[in-house]
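Good morning C.,

I know you're traveling, so I'll keep this short. The sequence:
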Amino acid sequence: MHELRNISDKKSLDNKKILVVRTDKIGDLILSLPFGKFIKMNFPNSKIFYVVKEGNSFFLQRVDFVDGFIEVKVKGARGEVELSQIPKIIKFLKKEKFDIAFLLYPRLSIALILKLAGVKIVGTSRRFFSTIFDIQVNISRRENIHHEAFYNIMLLKDFLDILDNQEILKELSPNFFTDDIKKLSSLPEKYIVFHPFSTSSPNIPLHSWIEIAKNLQTTVVWVGLESRFGKSSDQYKNQIEKSALGISLINRTSLTELVSAIKFSSAVFSTSSGPIHIASALKIPTIGLYRRQDIPRWKPLWGDSFIVDIEKIKWDNPSHIKDIADKIEKFTK
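The tokens, ready to paste straight into the viewer:
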């Protein structure tokens, strides 16, 4: 096993109660789980709790290295904690009495709440409010040199001897417990999940997704929520259903049903978003749409995958579309 050695002159997190803050999207939360698992591997007597965006605790309940969590409502593009949540968070902090908090997704609001509660804070050194942190770690994620999950682990450099070896990430799959999740009765024996939505990653036009689907022999199951793509109507759902290609679950699934659709699929085709990282953690083959510069930081970590460089394909060229479809078909056999 690749292990980042705890050395004598480092501080210990054993027997500590640790808070991990990751209040943004599902994909980012999944990529933060190796951080919690890694702490538990190296400090087995630690207690690990998470602060997550409302609705995201589904995944925390399905791993054995998380001891507790709190969900909070966030607002705006910055994902700051809503003011109405402050009493709830303060009550939680007073009850649990954390020794230290790691801000994997630093927001000023949660940093101030933690500071007022007297919790020791670890965060990156390049935020305008980094002076609030008790331990500042000099990391620049914008360089895209490391994977996002490894950038998280680098926040432990005051506690562990961090070697520049991202191979450790392969051993840190969350290993979700999903035995209770059953296959949706409406889905065929074999299918590929298409997720044409992303609020933060580069995407391709919907008609390109549809043209790729037309060139596949395998049934396509469409998933996603248009509201997360800035749509207030069923515009995408209606277009896909009008095309009569596959089965549309757009705007129709709960998180449990989405995970079910992914779990029993042959592969997932998506941008770098929640579904591709859910599939990766479940060891379902993934086909990801990425800009080349984003691949090192956001690529799928686990299971089989191949990456499509979104900027190298001419999406209005039928031969390019067919080539992508052929690769997807071969990849899923």
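Safe travels,
E.
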